[in-house]
């Protein structure tokens, strides 16, 4: 049976942990608000830009048998890059585990479809996880989430587009947590490259006036679109991470409080038992003296 000193020591330890988890919850909630505002602002632009690019590509492709831009070229997909977005730190529940399991399942399910896989990790947790496994060649984009900005997304997008154009890659997929709410994140696998032109609605014969030319418009739209998709994925992952961490720390704080209550009750019972035992010893001693 634990002594009173041991129970008091454990109560202090749990209370200190409770203070830490409570502080981490508040920090995550503050970061979540900013991340949520950023992703809500970015989604409409990303969706509108994607729709515009696909419509332009469809009309330009209709005027020529050749692909209007290299990333719109459809070819057999043999070499695939899987970009896995995780966090740099833990203490965010199943956030990272769900991502890495989904990436592994994607490789297993698509192994008969694609000849070669490579994994690019954004986030230290993903890098550490996949570098210990021989699933595929691993490359890393370090320290992206330390100071998240659009320039980083542009650099990542530029590197992937360059490899696609030179046929070093035939396809690029993003795996990340899509933010729904602080309690809900959904793991998604999104096609990034090649960009597939969409079919126009029936009877839609309206075309755009291009200035200076269709090709120039596409050359401007394509890099911007790819960078925007990567930027949105980074924002979605950042918001999801903070939501998952806030939820996990809230649960940890509540569990710590419950544990403190149970330990306090145990302490009081142990103390009462010790007092009762001492009183019985005093009474027994007094009776022995009388006898």
SSE topology sketch:
Blueprint: H1 4-62, E1 79-85, H2 95-109, E2 116-122, H3 124-131, E3 137-140, H4 150-165, E4 171-179, E5 185-193, H5 214-290
Parallel strand pairs: 1-2, 1-4, 2-3
Antiparallel strand pairs: 4-5
Q: Any key phrases for this structure?
A:
291 residues, alpha/beta, Pyruvate Kinase, Chain: A, domain 1, five-stranded mixed beta sheet, 5 helices, 5 strands
CATH architectural grouping of the largest domain: 3-Layer(aba) Sandwich
Order of helices and strands: HEHEHEHEEH
Structural class of the helices, strands and pairings? alpha/beta
* Average pLDDT reading: 85
Characterize the main sheet. Answer: 5 strands, mixed
Question: Approximately how much helix is present in the residues?
Answer: 55-70%
Q: Indicate the CATH topology of the largest domain.
A: Pyruvate Kinase, Chain: A, domain 1
The CATH superfamily of the largest domain is identified as ATP synthase, F1 complex, gamma subunit
Order of strands in the sheet with most strands:
3-2-1-4-5
CATH first level of the largest domain: Alpha Beta
What does this structure look like?
The chain has a five-stranded mixed sheet with strand order 3-2-1-4-5. The chain contains five helices and five strands, in the order αβαβαβαββα. A hairpin with a 5-residue loop joins strand 4 and strand 5. It is elongated, with a radius of gyration of 29 Å. The protein has 291 residues and is of the alpha/beta class. The mean pLDDT is 85. Helix 4 packs across helix 5. It has two domains: 57 residues, ATP synthase, gamma subunit, helix hairpin domain (Helix Hairpins); 219 residues, ATP synthase, F1 complex, gamma subunit (Pyruvate Kinase, Chain: A, domain 1).
């Amino acid at each position: 049976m634990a002594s009173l000193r041991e129970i008091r020591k454990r109560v202090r330890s749990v209370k200190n942990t409770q203070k830490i988890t409570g502080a981490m919850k508040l920090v995550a909630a503050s970061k979540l608000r900013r991340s949520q505002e950023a992703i809500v602002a970015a989604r409409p632009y990303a969706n509108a830009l994607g729709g515009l690019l696909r419509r332009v590509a469809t009309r330009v492709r209709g005027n020529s048998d050749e692909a209007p831009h290299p990333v719109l070229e459809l070819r057999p997909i043999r070499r695939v890059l899987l970009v896995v977005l995780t966090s740099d730190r833990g203490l965010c529940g199943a956030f990272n585990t769900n991502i890495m399991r989904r990436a592994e399942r994607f490789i297993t399910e698509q192994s008969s479809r694609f000849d070669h896989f490579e994994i690019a990790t954004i986030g230290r947790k993903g890098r550490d996880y996949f570098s210990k496994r021989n699933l595929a060649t691993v490359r890393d984009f370090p320290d992206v989430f330390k100071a998240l900005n659009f320039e980083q997304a542009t650099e990542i997008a530029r590197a992937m587009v360059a490899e696609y154009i030179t046929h070093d890659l035939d396809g690029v997929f993003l795996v990340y947590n899509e933010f729904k709410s602080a309690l809900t994140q959904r793991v998604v696998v999104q096609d990034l490259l090649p960009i597939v032109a969409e079919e126009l609605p029936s009877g839609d014969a309206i075309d755009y006036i291009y200035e200076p030319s269709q090709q120039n418009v596409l050359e401007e739209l394509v890099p911007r679109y790819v960078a925007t998709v990567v930027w949105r994925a980074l924002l979605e992952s950042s918001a999801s991470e903070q939501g998952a961490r806030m939820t996990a720390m809230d649960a940890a704080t509540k569990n710590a409080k419950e544990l403190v209550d149970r330990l306090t009750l145990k302490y009081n019972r142990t103390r009462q038992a010790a007092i009762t035992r001492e009183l019985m010893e005093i009474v027994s001693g007094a009776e022995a003296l009388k006898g």
